[in-house]
Amino acid sequence: MALRGLTKVYGSLRAADGIDLDIPAGSFYGVVGPNGAGKTTTLSMATGLLRPDAGTVHICGIDLWQRPDAAKPLLGVLPDGLRTFDRLTGAELISYAGRLRGMPAETIAPRRDDLVAALDLDSAAGTLVMDYSAGMAKKIALACALVHAPRVLVLDEPFEAVDPMSATAIRRILIDFVGGGGTVVMSSHVMALVERLCTHVAVVGAGHVLAAGEIDEVRAGSELEDRFVELVGNEREHRDLTWLRPS
Amino acid sequence: MRHLLAREWWRMLVLIAASIWLVTLIPAVVWAQRSLYGAAVDTRMAALAALGSVCAVGWALVPVLVAGGDDTLDPRRFTVFGVNASRIMPGLVVASLITLPAIFFGFMWLTLASSWFAEGALVGTFALVGALVQTLSLVALAKVCASWTARVFANRRARAFGFAVSFLALIVFSYLAWRALHRGLDVLFETDFNVLIDALAPTPVVSALTAPAAAANGDWALAWLGLALSIAWTVALLVAWRATVAQALVTPIYRSSGLRSRPDAVVTAGKGVPFLSAGDRSGPAGAVYARISRAWRGDPRYISGLAAVILLPALFVAVVVPALDLDPRWALAAPFVLAISIGWGRHNDVALDSSALWMDVVAGVRGGAVMRGRFAGVMMWSLPLVAVASAVTAGWAGHWELAPAIIGASCGALGASLGISAITSVLLPYRTPAPGENPFGAEVGSVGAGLVGQLASSAATFVLLPFVIVPAILAVVVDSRWGILATVGGLGLGAAIYVYGLHVAGRMYNARAGKLLAAVR
Predict the structure, then answer these.
(1) Where are the domains of chain A?
(2) The overall pTM is greater than 0.90
(3) DSSP-derived pairing of the beta strands A54-59 and A2-10
(4) Do A82 and B262 count as a contact with CB atoms less than 8 A apart?
(5) Which residue in the set A50, A69, A95 is minimally distant from B264, CB to CB?
(6) How far apart are CA B85 and CA B241, in angstroms?
(7) How far apart, in whole angstroms, are the C-alpha atoms of residue B111 and residue B83?
(8) DSSP structure class, residue A209
(9) Closest Cα to residue B14, out of B82, B66, B50?
(10) Taking chain B (521 residues) in consecutive chunks of 10 residues, what is each chunk's mean pLDDT?
(11) Which residues of A touch B255 (CB under 8 A)?
(12) Helix axes B300-315, B334-345, angle to 10 degrees
């Protein structure tokens, strides 16, 4: 995946300001940044959910915005903050995602069952998604992103609200996916998670890429969190909330 | 308010437009006051009772139908702050009284009540107090109606009960209206109207406005009783409002339908659907059809839309035609009203389905399939409904010979209006209540955009539909031989506009995929 000059402007706010990123095939790529840095905006533009004001997105060499019919089948997307149609059961939602991708029923059914089992959703597969917890909804959305076996997975905060057991299962699935030659692009606020999973990382701040590359390269010998703070420049005045102390 | 206006500039335009409109009404209010000033006590009382009753109905219904103008006063917004109802009620009451409608109605009641000064300063002052009470009672009435409606639609069982009660009320109202109108408009206005006003005047809904009549006649005890009744009514409404606020503060929105396990009905859905091609049935369009069919069966936003489109033509045939003693052929307009209402009602279809949009968009270029699947879900119930309604109406009107023409043209009108709506739903989507929210509400910030979308679809419908409908009108009015053209032309043109509309909408959907989500989420 290659992003070139991706720009999105909302009034006076430049949510993404000329984002350039090269995400190698077979990499586990983390995108980190403070709140409001432009991570979700960038990933939305990179997946066809938000039209950029300027810039290009190439998936395996195909221009996403020029040839979406060829590029989108290569992508699996888990957005953050978007409501999912919840009047289908979990299993039906996976089937729906598969059928939207043009898959035949005989291919969808076994993959649906595999995904439901792998994500520990067996007992909830026949329940409406509207009755799911936040973590379960996140897992079923991930299953929808995986059902057509994409080449590139773009996941916005995939571990948010997910319990530790499920997180382990998701990690295993993603690591296997990358091991098999797939590419994962993942945004997260959890530095330890990014450090543990990702081979590459990009630090985004105020709509710009502040640093990008292999994780050791970006860390430059220190902890990722320290490097992150250093890049973002977030050493604000420390104000002591003395009134917050119970006694 | 300041932040809201800064975020959505067009709200300021709506606010200015509403203010200008209300200002233009002021001369009418002043004229009414001067007329009432010179009128007899009974006339003045009757006029105020009639106006007060109509306004009370308006204040009860309008917030239910067009809620969502501003959600900053929604008590659910305060649930996380741990405040109790008593603490926020004064703020909510004051905030509700400084809205444009409340200010205007307060001005109107005070102005009209000042006409009682014709009976002396004491009566006039008494009437001004009543005007203030009336304003407060209307505001409280609106809040109670809006919040109770939201509660009724909060869960499935209550929703079903609410629909049943509404339907029953509608039948009773239709019967009463039919009885009243059947006797003729002259009788209605000369006798029934006066009887109705006499009955309404002492009720607490308007007694704050009519009580000064008793004072003017020297019966101060009756006057104070009228005002006391109105105050008690207002207090009761405030208590009911407070109860709903208290309930909203501690009750999260309940959306669950209970844990039920269902088999996967989507994986092979779409087989045998007549409005999809063989390729579509097994492809994405079949999946969209399966999903949207679920929404038509269980989503109150869709069900309420369905109920609303049936209501108008049913009332027209069952009440208006017999009551006004119209030629039975007028009833033949009903299936057209039904068809056009269904079609026009889908003009914001894509936004209503906003929660499914992102999956459709990331899946690739599927606009055509999405639109075909969505509208097949509408056609599955609407085409048989319109066809049967056409046949039944033709039979009811005693013109079976016109049935083919009416069926063909009304089904054509359905197809044409759906084709137009398919395009406007992609071109001019506006935010709607999300799944699980009050289906009669409007999403915050949607009122202005909604007007544009509705106007555009109305204009397109107005331009195109005559081609489908005029031959049928000629068949009814001039010569039944026009029926052949109405049948063939209606069906052909309707089908063509439907197919072309979906095609164009699909292409626009693909082109606008990156913008649609931002427009409706």
Answers:
(1) 2-82+151-234
(2) no
(3) antiparallel
(4) no
(5) A95
(6) 10
(7) 38
(8) E
(9) B66
(10) 64 77 90 92 91 91 63 70 84 88 93 93 94 94 83 64 70 69 65 80 91 92 94 95 86 54 78 85 89 84 78 76 76 90 87 86 85 93 94 87 92 94 87 62 51 72 85 88 90 94 93 80 65
(11) 130
(12) 160
Inter-chain contact A130–B365, Cβ cutoff 8 Å? Answer: no
A33's tokens: 């940044």
Instruction: Quickly list DSSP for B286-338.
Output: HHHHHHHHHHHHH-HHHHHHHHHHHHHHHHIIIIIHHHTT--GGGGGGHHHHH
Residues A5, A19: contact at Cβ < 8 Å? Answer: yes
CA distance B356 to chain A (A): 5
3-state secondary structure (DSSP) of residue B377: helix
Specify the CATH number of the domain A2-82+151-234.
Answer: 3.40.50.300
- The complex scores an ipTM of 0.87
Locate the DSSP E strands across A33-163: 54-59, 62-63, 75-78, 152-156
| A48 to B362: CB separation less than 8 angstroms, yes or no | yes
Q: Which of B70, B77, B75 is nearest to B92 (CA)?
A: B75
Distance between CA atoms of residues B222 and B219, nearest Å: 6
Q: Which strands form A62-63's sheet, in the order they lie side by side?
A: A13-22, A2-10, A54-59, A62-63
**How many interface pairs between A and B have CB atoms less than 8 angstroms apart?**
135
Query: What is the C-alpha separation between B34 and B357, in angstroms, rounded?
Result: 56
Residue of A99, A108, A133, A144 to mutate, testing the B interface (most B Cβ within 10 Å of its Cβ): A99
**CA-wise closest residue to B74 among B147, B136, B183:** B147
